[in-house]
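As agreed, record minuted below.
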Amino acid sequence: MLRPWDIQFTFEDSCGKTLHSKLLNRITKDIQTGRLTPGSILPGSRSLANQLGINRKTVQQVYEELEVQGWLKSKRRRGTFVSETLPEQSLSAANTNLLSSTIKTKPSSKLVENLYLDALALADCVSITNDGTPDARLIPYELLARTYRRVCVNLSRQAKLGYGDPRGAIELRNSIQKMLSSDRFMNCSEQEICIVRGSQMGIYLASRILDSKKGVIIMEDLCYLPAKAAFESNGFEVVKCRLDEQGLDIAHLREILENHNVSGIDGAG
């Protein structure tokens, strides 16, 4: 479709931390303010990407997201247009009241935000000793690739690519049950075993199972901060226990127990 002139876009004054969010907010605001009117055609993804100097896939993803939200409509072989019926104009009174509600989602704690920023910084600085980033030089890539391919082929042939038991594969849980029984003297069944993706997932599940109304969580003074963040995000008050030359200060622990109801003690820090 021929256009008398090209629509210009800019990231100036557009809120967002990524190019994706900046462009999404820019187009949405232009529609809300009337700069882009219902039915008007937008530049093709390649043209807009060249205009802004960004990846075409970013533009495509923004267009797709705005189409799902109801702001845009894609017409095959014609292009992408501003929707004739915009989201706000079709909201019921009840939905409008929900949008203007003062009840907001609980914000993340400052500790969680700082841990996230620290993780990003560590990803860009491989020389820093950290709490979990593996040494990529030790990864057997060829072996993993062959194994991954073999597993995918076998699962596909057996029609097992759907969701499985959320507790983990029964074969693995059976093996773990036998190990715990024979080597760790733990009498449990495979039904009591749950496979997690890592320590942080296990800690988070524990923080969800325990009841924050029944007491605080006691952690060592030099604790594992992501664990502290997990408990705090689920409403727990975390009380720090001092350390001495032998580890946990038993006298201080007794003092804490005398003054607080306790839901759990995390000594893995």
About this structure: Strands lie at 72-75, 79-82, 216-220, 238-241, 243-244, 247-248, 262-266. Residues 4 and 231 are 59 Å apart (CA to CA). The first helix runs from residue 19 to 32.
